[in-house]
Each structure stands twice: as structure tokens, then as C-alpha cells.
Amino acid sequence: MSDDTLLAGVEPGTQLVVPQPSQSADLLPIPTDGTRVLVVTYRDTPNRLERRLHDRDIDPAAVTVIPVTGTDLAYTGPLTVIDRVAPSDLTGLGIRLSTALDDLDAGDWLYVRGLSAALMYVTPDRLYRFLDFLTHAARARDLRAVYEFYRPALSDTVYARFRSLFDDELQLASE
């Protein structure tokens, strides 16, 4: 399967988990055929995300980003950037997501990038409950969603538990 067709044909409402083989993994090629994308990222600053979107021929004007970082950010550009949230603040992230999800339509994309980093700040049980809430909210809105984990950072037991929340798993080739 070519890189550009990885996510082609994903049906609205589908929740995919992507066990990334490398921490340096690039953005997945999300098709933006008139759809909008909400990116929650533990990995990228808005400036870096904008460059990566341009590299993937994704229009940054169609993207809203919620940066998850403990660092203040300065950004002026075409991305719509919602106030950053601290990595340990899943409640704050849930509030921002609830508001942002309301602005999306059926078939739009939710892309949660770098979820393994959350486990440096919250317990696996807490992250599981948060992802349970988020996958249900995305399904209820008929959003296509991708949740990216750095797989080597998770035990098999923790990964299997998280995996149960998703409809399917997208396997990427090792680098």
C-alpha cells in the first residue's frame, strides 16, 4: 500500500490506532478532500506541524491544532491554534476537544499524535478512560480518527487494552 493511500477509503466513524515503530515517524497522509482536520499533538509545535502539513500537501487552513505541551507557544500562521494544554491535564484537553469536535462535520478527521507521551504524565488507567470518552465522542459525530502511539513505549498488556478501544489497527512498515 502506498504512503498516500494509507488512509484513503476510511469510512466516517472509524477509529484507527497506529502503533508507530519509531519516535521520529512523520505525519500520516490524511486525505483532506474538502474535509477538516483536528490535530491533537504531543509531538509538534504549530510551526513544525505547519511545515509537515505543507510537506504532505495538506492545506494548513483546513487544520485546527490543540498543542499538548508545558511550554508557551507563539504562532502566527494559517493553522487555527486552540490554547495549549499541559500534558497532565486530560480534563482541560477534554474540554478543548469537546468544543473543537462540535465544529467538525461527519467525515472530518481527528488525528491524535504522540499519545505515548501522555503516559509520562498520567496513568494508563486514566489515559484509557480518556480515550474511551474520546473514541465514543468521535464515533457519535461520525468522525474518522487516527490515534498514534509509539509502540515500543507500551507494554503488550497496556497496548492490548488500548487497542480494544479502536475499530482497527493500521500497521506501518518499520523504518
Please characterize this protein's 3D structure:
The chain has 175 residues and is of the alpha/beta class. The protein has helices at 46-55, 90-101, 124-140, 156-163, and strands at 15-20, 37-41, 63-67, 80-81, 109-113, 144-150, 168-169. The chain is globular. The mean pLDDT is 90.
Secondary structure layout plus pairing:
Layout: E1 15-20, E2 37-41, H1 46-55, E3 63-67, E4 80-81, H2 90-101, E5 109-113, H3 124-140, E6 144-150, H4 156-163, E7 168-169
Parallel strand pairs: 1-6, 1-7, 2-3, 2-5, 3-4, 5-6
Helix pairs in contact: 2-3
Characterize this entry briefly.
The protein is of the alpha/beta class. Helices cover 27% and strands 18% of the residues.
Please describe the structure with a list of short key phrases separated by commas or semicolons.
single chain, 175 residues, alpha/beta, 7-stranded parallel beta sheet, 27% helix, globular
Proportion of beta-strand residues: 15-25%
Structural class: alpha/beta
Compute the number of helices.
4
Q: What is the mean pLDDT?
A: 90
How is the largest sheet built, in terms of strand order?
A: 4-3-2-5-6-1-7
Q: Could you describe the largest sheet, including whether it forms a barrel?
A: 7 strands, parallel
Give the beta-strand count: 7
Percentage of residues assigned to helices: 25-40%
Calculate the terminal CA-CA distance, rounded to whole Å: 15 Å
Radius of gyration: 15 Å
